[in-house]
TrEMBL record:
Protein name in the entry: Pyridoxal 5'-phosphate synthase
Top-rank lineage group of the source organism: Eukaryota
Organism annotation: Vanilla planifolia
Amino acid sequence: MEDMRYVGILRSRGSNFRIKGKIDIIDSSTKDHAKMQQRVKSWFASSLKSRFQYLGPVPRFPVINEKLSNDSELDPSAGPVDTFCLLVFYPEEVDYLNLKRNERLLFALRCDSDESITWWSEKVNP
């Protein structure tokens, strides 16, 4: 599980969300059976065109041979290829800022005394 510091994910109409949390990377080497099932389910939920991307050459590298880029085959019933990984994000904190309304809200996960997990929020100065 990787730590993810605040990352701005949405900026529109004066709003900005920054989210902090952990990311679980589920790839072909993952040993946990439940996580592997989640990876397979995500693979089959993707369109064939989307799955096809994982068979092509390395993204952002120069195209050397146009024919090789389009010749890969994909069996629609086959499970995920080794290059496919699933990222599962577990948010822990959200920082919402809206400068047009001069508003800032902080949200965070908190463990209660009975060990249940709830979201806590607080309005703070921008």
